[in-house]
Design a protein that fits this description.
Heat Shock Protein 90; elongated; five-stranded antiparallel β-sheet; Beta-Lactamase; alpha+beta; 23% strand
Length: 333
């Protein structure tokens, strides 16, 4: 194209190639007759930005390099275009740009997708760091309040017994029983804290662990739940077992919070080359918009776990023409 601009900032095309019709849906003659047609298919922000770039180029005599969006009404489509041109000075203060107009839609969308993924990863990382910090605070509080309190009580009890022994007094059975009960509570606290860090149920295998989760969910939430598997024992790596356990945990938690379901089915199956986990409910279902929310850290965390293990995660309707949600995880063996 050849584009000219007067000192009054009036823009016109003196030459446009026939490729304009495939790119913009406008013929070369239409653009040469009225250059404002190009600006008319831009949104306000991009239109103002292009005018500012033209004025800046005219004042500094620098090359024009601009990219923005245009709306092709006849195709009901938005395109990203890039204008690149060299500038030359004509008579009476008129400037002319000789250049090309490129369709950069694909590369621009890919770039925007990468930037969006990077932002989401940063948000997820920040959220995970916050969760880790909250877990550290919680563990520190439990150790201080629970274990610390028990150990202090044991120390005081032992000091009392030592004083009685020194004084030659008899030690009552009540005192020893009390100390024993404190020691037992301490063991329970240690077991609970370690279980929160890594569920001990996983030591029994992923099949028993998932079945236990479903049973606990049924007891605590009161929703009819069933578990099915095609193997009594499925051998997985520690990372795979933890990922499936946490994804099942997150899925059941989401059902309890949002689904309003009356029936839940969990299925764990293994073949020669992959393991499959499905969590299906008959609740209200999940909207696509909800899956894209920036604060959907639970869903995003599930995706991150699966991606790290070269697996796949699908979240959608529980079945054709059915309400509810199906979470499907596949990991390679």
């Amino acid at each position: 194209f050849q584009m000219q601009m007067t000192p009054e900032h009036v823009v016109s095309f003196h030459y446009v190639s026939d490729g304009s019709e495939a790119l913009l849906g406008m013929t070369a003659s239409e653009l040469q007759q009225d250059a404002q047609l190009l600006f008319s298919i831009m949104n306000t922000r991009d239109r103002q930005d292009l005018r500012a770039k033209l004025i800046q180029s005219a004042q500094t005599h620098e090359k024009l390099d601009w990219e923005g969006r245009v709306w092709i009404d006849g195709w009901q489509d938005t395109k990203w275009i890039n204008l690149r041109a060299t500038i030359s000075l004509l008579e009476d203060g008129v400037v002319q740009w000789d250049g090309i107009m490129l369709n950069i839609t694909q590369s621009k969308l890919e770039k925007l997708e990468i930037e969006q993924s990077r932002r989401e990863l940063e948000q997820l990382t920040a959220h995970m760091n916050q969760v880790k910090e909250q877990e550290r605070i919680s563990i520190a509080r439990e150790i201080h309040d629970d274990l610390g309190g028990n150990l202090t009580a044991i120390k005081m009890g032992l000091a009392s017994i030592a004083q009685q022994i020194t004084a030659g007094n008899a030690i009552s059975l009540e005192q020893t029983s009390h100390l024993e009960s404190i020691v037992n509570r301490t063991f329970e606290s240690v077991h609970r804290i370690s279980g929160n860090l890594r569920p001990s149920i996983l030591d029994l295998g992923i099949v028993d662990a998932i079945e236990w989760q479903v049973t606990q969910f049924k007891k605590q939430v009161g929703v009819k739940s069933a578990f099915a598997t095609n193997h009594s024992d499925i051998t997985l790596s520690t990372e795979q077992a933890m990922a499936l356990f946490r994804i099942c945990q997150e899925s059941l938690s989401n059902i309890a919070k949002y689904a309003k379901a009356t029936n839940v089915n969990v299925r764990l199956e293994a073949s020669d080359d992959e393991v499959l986990l499905e969590v299906i409910d008959n609740g209200v279902g999940i909207k696509d918009a909800d899956k894209l929310k920036t604060n959907s850290f639970g869903l995003r965390g599930m995706h991150e776990r699966v991606t790290a293990l070269n697996g796949s995660l699908a979240i959608g309707p529980s079945g054709e023409g059915m309400s509810g949600t199906k979470v499907q995880v596949t990991l390679p063996l």
